[in-house]
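Bench notes, bay 3.
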Amino acid sequence: MFYFDPLYFTILIPAILLSLLAQLMVSSAFARWGKVRNGAGLTGVEVAERIIRRAGLHGVGLEGVPGQHTDHYDPSSHTVRMSQDVATRPSVAAMAVVAHELGHAQQHAENSVFIQLRGFLVPAMQFSPMVSYFLIVIGLLLNIVGLIELGILFYGVVVVFMLLTLPVEIDASRRGLRLLRETGLMVTSEDASGSRSVLTAAALTYVAAAVTALLNLLYYISLANRRR
């Protein structure tokens, strides 16, 4: 029942389609704007250095990281890590990605409420997904509704984390675009439209993840109700 429930696939198919659409938009945006030179002619590293200097984000480090689309801000070390394509290319996509990650750095510097809430849940996210799946599966096998419900509570942590991630990421993009304008890096109309396109596509991946998590939660709740 758990693995072949038609209801599960009814929920799963829209989630998969949304995730595929998000990935397609990200790939398309990066493929297009990764080839367009930004108006300032600066690589990702140079964009980061200018923003850090002019926006007063002192203490933020810069490092390289292998892979593609692996760029991220590490709050534990106050470091922006950039993939090779972003770090070394003077593209609109690279500029947008760097600005977004520095938006996260600014959030941490200002102790953003959503950042604090999400940070509070980070330790729980290290075990909540596995514990929730384990309890739900064991509850189904043994037909113990209480275990399923306990697993649902643990999975609720995952859903809350995903939902909190949305405003954090959207705010980081908003801050990133503002940083580009305030530091004089938004030189051409392509800089503005391309940066928005890249960051909007990236945001959709977080929307897809949050929707998928929420749909899974509703499915698990329906399982518990049907086992009563």
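Next record in the batch:
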Amino acid sequence: MIYSLSGTYTYSAPGFVVVECAGVGYKCTTSLNTIRELPQTGSQIKLYTYMAVREDAVELFGFSTLQELECFKMLTSVSGVGSKVGTAILSDFTPEQVAVFIASSDVKSLTKASGVGSKLAQRIILELKDKMKKSGIADIPKGRKGSAVMSVVSGNINNAAEALGVLGYTNDDVMPVLSQFDPGLSVEELIHKTLLELGKR
């Protein structure tokens, strides 16, 4: 499995970019959000990748951040969501926005993405919320610090923790950070602040 590519950004077209590494050009299917984040062609870039192996093809997907890659992997794990729909969702929305939609059961917003109808949006929310519950993302941590954390895990804090689960973070990753913030902040603000803090580590 190729974890990432670092090389020269040589070409882009709607839906993919080419990164040249050691004389080999790798075509990476990607989202419009990642393409918008890239510098001009000829620059050195790094993409986090996911390789999809099928009977008739091998396709490499590349994203500018680990959060977008994790969100793509979560989305495409949902029954009925293929790579095309996954990249379409991440072309219209940031990973943080997708996470908020799922945590808040916002079906209407998800249907604005190309190829996502109401039934599919409901399935995405249902399956990913269930995965977060099974992985313990939505649980209140136990242990010596349990009572302290419990006092701040309410409303937007809990929703932010669930949303961050869509981006691949565990409760142990996010709760110590979220507990530092004002629980009166919006979910999006809490996610943004948490990602900034985690990025410093």
